[in-house]
Amino acid sequence: MVSPAVPLRKLLIIGGAEDRVGKAKILRRFVKLAGGKEARIVIIPTASSFQDEVVAAYRQVFARFGATGCAIVNPRTRSEADDASLVQALDEATGVFMSGGNQLKLSQIFAGTACGEAILRAHRRGAVVGGTSAGASIMSEFMISLGDESVTPRQRTSQLTHGLGLLDGVIVDQHFAQRQRYGRLMSIVASSPNLIGIGIDEDTAIEVTDNRELTVIGRGAAYVLDCRRAITDAPEARTGAPLLVSGAIVHSLPAGATFDITKLMLTDFVEQHPDLGVTVTAAASSRP
Questions:
Q1: Confidence band, pLDDT 50/70/90 cuts, at residue 4
Q2: pLDDT tens digits for 61-87?
Q3: Residue 251 — φ and ψ, nearest 5°?
Q4: Cα(2)–Cα(21) distance, integer angstroms
Q5: Distance, CA of 234 to CA of 245 (rounded, Å)
Q6: What are phi and psi of 42, to 5 degrees?
Q7: pLDDT tens digits, 6-65
Q8: Residues 6+ apart with CB under 8 A from 283
Q9: Of 137, 140, 202, 207, which one is the catalytic site residue?
Q10: Is the pTM value of this prediction over 0.70?
């Protein structure tokens, strides 16, 4: 007797400000992972202050790639997040997409509710779960809900809140280079060295397979911060003081990089941004 194949578990975690009007490479990939023309996508605009506009924009771009059947799940309270009809929509989805906005609002409404559990079930059965900006941060078990934005890590200037727990042992931060969030992510990881930090640039995403392998797509880069062997003065530093962090390892991963987040090592790299401006002249090509 042949046992049924275990579905791959996919996350598409986007650093925010992804292209929606051009080639939309990242969102095209989300639709493909969700089943293309057969996709049943649920859009969750809960984090946004402009929910109608967000829904219209994502419906339009998903339809461009063949996914015309999009449902909306948008509870406004924790009680509404236990509604059976919303849970059913998530249980029938092949793709779940969470918009940007206020990640603390997402955590308050979804974490530990029936809708939150339905998102976890969707992921376990093989539906792709995607999120951008706030929808990216909520993926991990714990998320940064506020923090100082600077290059320098400082003591006690960031706050952690419970997320959905789709990605274990990791803290995700977004708009990473554009909003100079290196310092706040490093301060969290240095203080909790059992966690791995992942920062993602805008219009960039990591596709995570089975909580292990990530592949970078998009225009920017993803960064993996590892402080497991670092020396830090976090236990003694005063509030707001620059943190000592010595011996941290930072992996900068552009599009085309594949990385094992359990072994913390690069497994493959295919150049995605060749220097098309360089040409070989006839004289140069004739040299021995």
A1: low
A2: 999 999 998 999 999 999 999 999 999
A3: -105, 125
A4: 45
A5: 9
A6: -110, 125
A7: 789 999 999 999 999 999 999 999 999 999 999 999 999 999 999 999 999 999 999 999
A8: none
A9: 202
A10: yes
Q: How far is CA 37 from CA 22, 57, 95, in A?
A: 20, 18, 12
* Model confidence band, residue 282 (pLDDT cutoffs 50, 70, 90): very low
Q: How far apart are CA 223 and CA 214, in angstroms?
A: 11
What φ, ψ does residue 209 adopt, rounded to 5°? -110, 125
Amino acid symbol at 70: C
CB within 8 A of 63, min separation 6: which ones? 70
Catalytic residue among 123, 175, 187, 191: 175
Q: Starting at the earlier edge strand, list the strands of the sheet with 10-14.
A: 70-72, 41-44, 95-98, 128-132, 10-14, 204-209, 213-218, 257-260, 265-269
Catalytic residue at 202? Answer: yes
145: its two tokens: 């809900």
- Single out the catalytic residue among 133, 145, 158, 187: 133
Q: Are 78 and 108 in contact (CB under 8 A)?
A: yes
